[in-house]
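Dear H.,

Thanks for agreeing to be a second pair of eyes. The structure we're designing against is below in token form, covering all 167 positions.
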């Protein structure tokens, strides 16, 4: 048995109201795991704790640590909501054997920066993002756009195709 992941979300803002007010009520995790090599090695822990909901503990860990605890039976009781800042980070978790088939990958927000194509008002991607989504999909994991629980799910790769980013 492994941990029962409740939601795997990509959001470059990490912890904010859409997560703390919307998704936590919808999927009811018992822990939020922010999986980010950058955040795990930076001094962001205090900022994250300030944004954390009082009812659900938040932990910032590296990709390597996430893979370790996923494989460790001592963490089987976790029902985490996993947050990454990027699609490539989520693709790395899938490549390292974390099973996200039951939940898929929720794409919530990627800022519209230089050399990115806006797919929705909250999601802009580049070729690296699309390649990461293709790798996740090749592992049998659905990647979908859905900012908040009440929104309709949109197939990420279909929206990317409609915008000329895939065939």
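And this is the sequence the design step returned. I haven't edited it by hand at all.
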């Amino acid at each position: 048995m492994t941990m029962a992941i409740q939601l795997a979300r990509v959001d470059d803002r990490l912890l904010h109201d859409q997560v703390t007010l919307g998704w936590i009520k919808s999927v009811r995790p018992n822990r939020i795991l922010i999986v980010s090599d950058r955040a795990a090695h930076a001094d962001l822990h205090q900022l994250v704790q300030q944004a954390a909901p009082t009812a659900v503990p938040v932990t910032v860990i590296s990709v390597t640590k996430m893979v370790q605890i996923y494989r460790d039976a001592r963490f089987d009781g976790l029902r985490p909501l996993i947050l990454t800042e990027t699609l490539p980070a989520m693709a790395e978790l899938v490549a390292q054997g974390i099973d996200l088939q039951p939940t898929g990958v929720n794409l919530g927000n990627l800022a519209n920066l230089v050399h990115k194509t806006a797919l929705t008002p909250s999601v802009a991607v580049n070729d690296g993002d699309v390649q990461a989504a293709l790798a996740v999909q090749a592992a049998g994991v659905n990647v979908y756009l859905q900012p908040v629980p009440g929104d309709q799910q949109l197939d990420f790769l279909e929206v990317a195709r409609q915008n000329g980013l895939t065939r």
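Two observations from my side: The chain has a mean pLDDT of 91. Helices lie at 17-27, 37-41, 45-51, 63-71, 87-95, 127-138, 156-162.

Warmly,
E.
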